[in-house]
Amino acid sequence: MTTIATCWGEMAYHDSGGSGHPLIFLHGTGCDASDWTPVIERLPCEQRCIALDFRGHGRSTVPTRPFTLGSLADDVLYLADHLGIQNVEIVGHSLGGMVGMEVARRSSCIVGLVLLEGWTSLSSAGSAFDAGRFYGSLSQTAVTQIQQKAKETRNRFNSEVWHDFWGAVENFNAYAYLEQARIPICEVFGSLGRNDLTEQRLCIPSNPNIQWVWIPSAGHYLPHECPVEVAKVINTRRAL
């Protein structure tokens, strides 16, 4: 991992190098860049993959001042500018998908989005699926590791700083952006817990630039549960 200085501390990231337009990987809440390793290992070796740790996650500095979801989007753009890269595609999981949409809303350098359960809004996510599908087919060992990492990450933050951040996440709504988006967007979901109202409740507008992909027998943690299938989705996007 490499770090760069920011106004809030050190931001950690990994850059594989490689050719072609780069992919930036954005992790979910309580996760970090290392959670993308099983997916990245299954992509072509020449593909340039950049994975960063959000503020307070992984090896990045824990911020002491208030920040929002929009602040995380600013960090992504700051890193892209630091690396001198343009024409970037973002692959985001959960919170990372939400941040990815905000980055794309702010910058024309984003040429595509692969959103792995990257919610249009948290309120829509909460009622979209039947209960009991969150960890999918993961082993109890894997579930415990995810939960422990998330707990340790949350405990790093001052409670007020976290409260303000999470309030911004709860208020996030990307419907208007998705409705007008002019870049290819792939909305990827695990099929566990899917019911007749799921697609309606996910609140994804009709837009010819948005493609849906359902991964069978999977829950929320797609990079952990099915990295092979996630890599295939990414490779399909690259081939278009």
What does this protein look like?
There is one protein chain. The protein is of the alpha/beta class. 39% of the residues lie in helices and 20% in strands. The chain has 10 helices and 8 strands. It has helices at residues 37-40, 69-83, 95-106, 122-126, 140-156, 159-171, 175-180, 198-201, 222-225, 227-239, and strands spanning 2-5, 10-15, 19-26, 47-52, 88-93, 110-116, 185-190, 210-215. Strands 1-2-4-3-5-6-7-8 form an 8-stranded mixed β-sheet, sandwiched between helices. Helix 2 packs across helix 3 (95-106). It is globular, with a radius of gyration of 17 Å. The chain starts with a strand and ends with a helix. The mean pLDDT is 96.
Shape: globular
Number of beta strands: 8
Q: Helix count, per DSSP? A: 10
In the predicted model, the low-confidence regions spanning at least 5 consecutive residues are: none
* Helix percentage range: 25-40%
Protein structure class = alpha/beta
